[in-house]
Amino acid sequence: MKKMILILAFVLTGVMVHAQEKDAFTKDTEKLVRVISASAFEPVVKQFSAMVPQDKKEAFEKDVRATFPKLYAAMAEIYKEEFTHDEVKDILAFYATPTGKKLAEKTGVLSQKGMAAGQQWGMEIQTLISKYK
């Protein structure tokens, strides 16, 4: 009986440690998503905000930003499928450096410029496609 209780205690302790690790992993991954995504989402908020009357923009933007935690949590689950907790910690350490902070701040601008470059490239590909029709 004592052995059974001891085994059960070890199993429960292992489960609790694993659950705490998972919670830390989730928290770190959500933090990473926030760091990476914050500046990228601001232009999107402004773009959607342009569709709202001027006197309602502030409230609209506040409501949109209130949806970010849910989005970050969903994105964190995707990151957790691709990275280990140690890798997430390493990436967070990079984003804590001056270069990492700059990259995080520039993500929105880089995304916009990248989309424009991608659109230009897509038009070039369309020209190539017509060449082969």
Descriptive terms for the model:
133 residues, mainly alpha, 89% helix
Could you explain the architecture of this structure?
This protein is mainly alpha-helical. The protein has one domain. The protein contains five helices and no strands. Helix 1 packs across helix 3, helix 1 packs across helix 4 and helix 1 crosses helix 5. The longest helix has 48 residues. The termini are far apart. The relative contact order is 0.11.
Note the total helix count.
5
Radius of gyration: 22 Å
Distance between the termini: 79 Å
What average pLDDT do the residues reach? 85
What would you say about this model in short?
The chain has 133 residues and is mainly alpha-helical. The protein has helices at 2-49, 57-66, 68-82, 85-95, 98-131.
Write the layout of secondary structure elements.
Blueprint: H1 2-49, H2 57-66, H3 68-82, H4 85-95, H5 98-131
Helix pairs in contact: 1-3, 1-4, 1-5
